[in-house]
Amino acid sequence: MRPVLIMVGREFRDGLRNRRVVGTTLLMAALSLTLALLGSAPTGTVGTSALSVTVVSLSSLTIFLVPLIALLISYDAIAGEVDRGTMLLLLSYPVTRWQILTGKFIGHVCILTLATILGYGAAGVAVSFANGVAEQGAAASFAVMIGSSVLLGAAFIALGYVVSVLVLDPRTAGGIAIGLWLFFVVLYDMALLGLLIADQGKNITTGVLSVMLLANPADIYRLLNLTGFSNISTLSGMAGLSAQVMLSGTALVGALVAWIVVPLSAAGLIFARRQM
Amino acid sequence: MTSPSVRLVGVSKHYGTLHAVAGLDLELHQAERVALVGHNGAGKSTLIKLMLGVIRPTEGHVEVLGVDPAHHAFAAVRMSMGFLPENVVFPPSMTGAEVLSFYARLKRQPVSRNRALLERVGIAAAASRPVRTYSKGMRQRLGLAQALIGEPRVLLLDEPTTGLDPASRQSFYEIVAEFGQKGTTVLLSSHVLAEIEHQADRVVMLDHGRKVADGTLSDLRRLSGFPTCIRIGLPSGVRFHPELPAGMAECRDLDERTMEIRCSDASKLDVLRYLLDAAVPLADIEIAPPSLDDIYVDILRRMAAE
Description:
The complex is a heterodimer.
Chain A: H1 2-17, H2 20-39, H3 50-74, H4 76-84, H5 86-91, H6 97-131, H7 138-167, H8 170-199, H9 206-214, H10 217-226, H11 230-236, H12 239-244, H13 249-273
Chain B: E1 6-15, E2 18-28, E3 33-37, H1 44-52, E4 59-64, H2 74-79, E5 81-84, H3 96-106, H4 114-121, H5 136-147, E6 154-158, H6 166-181, E7 185-190, H7 193-196, E8 202-207, E9 210-215, H8 217-224, E10 228-233, E11 249-253, E12 258-263, H9 268-277, E13 284-288, H10 292-305
Parallel strand pairs in B: 3-7, 3-8, 5-6, 6-7
Antiparallel strand pairs in B: 1-2, 1-4, 8-9, 10-12, 10-13, 11-12
Helix pairs in contact in B: 4-5, 8-10
C-alpha cells in the first residue's frame, strides 16, 4: 500500500507543478461559468431553476471536455515514462507494476476530481448567488453531475492507460487517444442515430438500444445526468429516450464503474507482462 | 569464500530473432568492481536489465544476492540494490531534494540521510532548485545519489560517465571506489574503455551478447598479445639502429628523431636493458602498454578471424 501512496503523491505533486491542475481547473471554470451565466438568462418564468439549466448545459459540456482532458492526462502515463527512461529506474525499485499503475491512476483521478469540483463548483456557486434558491432536487442533480463527471473521467483515464501500455510510444499513444475520443464522443452517437433511423424500429428493440448505450461510457453519463431527474429530462429533450430505456440509476453507475475497472485491469495485466 | 552477489548461469535473452545475450555465465563477488565493456548493442544494458529483474531470461538462471529476480522475495533484494540508468532523467519540475526523497521513501530509507548523500555527490547547494535547471553533470550526480540510497550491496551503473567532464568523472569514480571498499559489488558498463582502465578490478568484454573475455586488465593484456610500444627520442643528428635479437621486437623510424619499438609485454624489460646497455644518447623514452581499447579491438579481431 505504501508504494501506491508514494506514487499518488508524486503524480499529484507533478500535476500541480506542471500546471496541469491549474490549467484544467481554469478551463473548466471558464467554460462552465460562461455556460452558467449565459444559459441562465432565458429561464425567466418557465418554472425551472437556473441551476437545473446549468446542469443540462454543463453535462453536455462534460461529455466533450472531460473525456478529452482524461485522455490527455493518461495517454502519456506509462508510454512517456518508458520513452524518457524513467520507467526503467522506477522498476528497479521495490515497487510492483500494479502499484505503479494504481498509484498513477489514483493520482490522476485526484487531479481530475479537484479540477471538476473547483471548476464546476464555481459555476454552481455563481448561479446560486445570482438566482437565489433553486427548486428541490436541483442541488442533488448538480452533485450527481459532479460525481458522475469524475467517474466518466476515471473511465477515460483507464482507457488512456490501456493505450499507453499497449503502444509504449507517447506519439502513437497520443494519436490513438484522440481517435478514441472521436469514436466515443462524436462518431458513436452519430452512428447509433443513423442506425436507429435506418432500422425504423424493426430490429432494434429497447433492450438492444440499452446495451448499445451502455457500451459507451459517454452515453451512460448522458443517461445518468439528463434522464435521472424529471425536471432535467424534460428540459434536455431526453424525456422520450429515458421513457424507452429503462435503466435504474444504480445500474448506470454500476456500468460506469465497470468502464473504469475493466480497462484498468486490462492495462495492469498488459503492463505486468510487458517486456521493457 | 562467500557466495557471489550476482550469478548468471547459461543466460540467454532473445528479442525475436535478435540474440541480445547468448549463453552467458558470469559471477560478481562482494567488494569487486567489475567493468562491463563492449560496443553499443553488445548486450550490456540487456544484461543489467536481467540483473534488475525488469526482463526475464529466455534461457538460463539469474540470481542476485541469492534470489531469483522472478521470485516475489526479490522486492527485498531491490532494497539493497542501486541502479543508475544510461541517460538518467528526472521530472524537470521537481527539485533535487524532492527527487531523492521520493526514491528514498520507495526504498523505505529515512529521508534525513539524503542531505549527506547530496553533499557526498557535490550538489547539496542545488538541492532546492528544480532539476530543470541542472546541468548534465549535476543530473548524473543526482542519479548517482539516487543509486546510493540505503548503502546498496550491489550497484549497477550503466554508462555512468557519458557526458561528464574529466573532473566530475574523477570524483564520480572516487565515490564508486569508496563504496567498493565498503564491500559493495559494483558493475559499471562503458564503451569508453580508456576511462575505466584504472577503475575496475576485473573487465568483462561482451560482443554480440557473448562474453569474449573476463579477467584483470593484466590477464587481458597477456591474452591479447598486443605489443607494448616503446618510443625513444634521439638527439638530432644521431642515427641509431639497435640490433635486437631476432623475434624480440620490431623497430621502425617514426620520424627523424623518434623511433618506435614494438615488443611483447614479457620482453619489454629485455628491450629496455638492451637499449640502456647500448649507451645510446637517449633524449626521451616513453613506454605505452596496450590500452584497453587496443586489447578490445585485438580480441574482437581475433574472435572474427576464428
